[in-house]
Every structure is written in structure tokens, then in C-alpha cells.
Give the backbone structure.
Amino acid sequence: MISAQSNHEDDPLALERQVCFALAIASRSVIGLYRPLLEPMGLTHPQYLVMLALWGRTPLSVKELSGMLALDPGTLSPLLKRLEAIGYLRRDRAVTDERQLAVRLTPTGQALREQALAIPAAVVERLGMRIDDLRQLHESLTRVIEAAGEAP
């Protein structure tokens, strides 16, 4: 008969000790908080990330967006098509290089930024965490992302 580990602190395979498990649960939980805030704007969370990038700088090439969002172009393309279909952005050939697409906000997409300004504060309120704790978490996660990107 195989006995279960009685002390999870000593078990390197204990589910609750896994960084990947904590990250997966945290990610799903936090993204779930965004859903009711984004629905009135007609956005999914991945589309919101695209809009955040474009609210920061427009136009952007698909390649630049892909790099900023850490998404391959095949994943990004359907997001862009959907945002274009609802009138938030346009994809045009770049003036400097016709092989590239330039993604730019429409006036409707730019105006949506005003509505989105309330989202960060609403998420912080729903989390019930201190801003300093969230900033520290962001810094830690950024280090994890960098370390994972450098891993062989």
C-alpha cells in the first residue's frame, strides 16, 4: 500500500508548493475580476491587453504588438480582426514598408480609453490589496517572466 505524504512541506511535488499552480490559479482569478468590467466595452481580457498597448502608442506594427504582448502573430491576428470588426482599430499597410501592417486606433477605440480609466482602480478595489503589495507582486512576476525567458 502506498501512503500519501503526510507532510506537504517536505514533498517537492506537493500541489500547493508549486509555483506553476499558484500562478495558474492567480491568473484565472484575477482575469475573472476583469470580465464584468470589460463586458460593457465589448472586450475580452486579451483584447483589452491589445487596447492597452495601442492606448500607449499608436500606430504599432503587428510585429511590435506581438513582442509587447508576448503573443505569436497567429494568436494576435484573430484578436486584431475582432477589434477591427467592432470598430476599435484599423489595420493598414505601413507607409514605410508595405509588407507590414500598421495597427492604429479608430476615434471610437481612442474614445474607449476614457471608459477604461476606471478599470485599474476597480480591480484594485475588488482585490482588496494595498497598492504597494500589488506593485511588489508586479516586480516579482516581472522577474519570474525574465528568468523563465532566460531559462534553457
Q: What stands out?
A: The chain has one domain: 17-146. Helices lie at 19-38, 45-56, 62-69, 73-85, 107-116, 119-127, 131-150. Strands lie at 60-61, 89-93, 101-105. The mean pLDDT is 91.
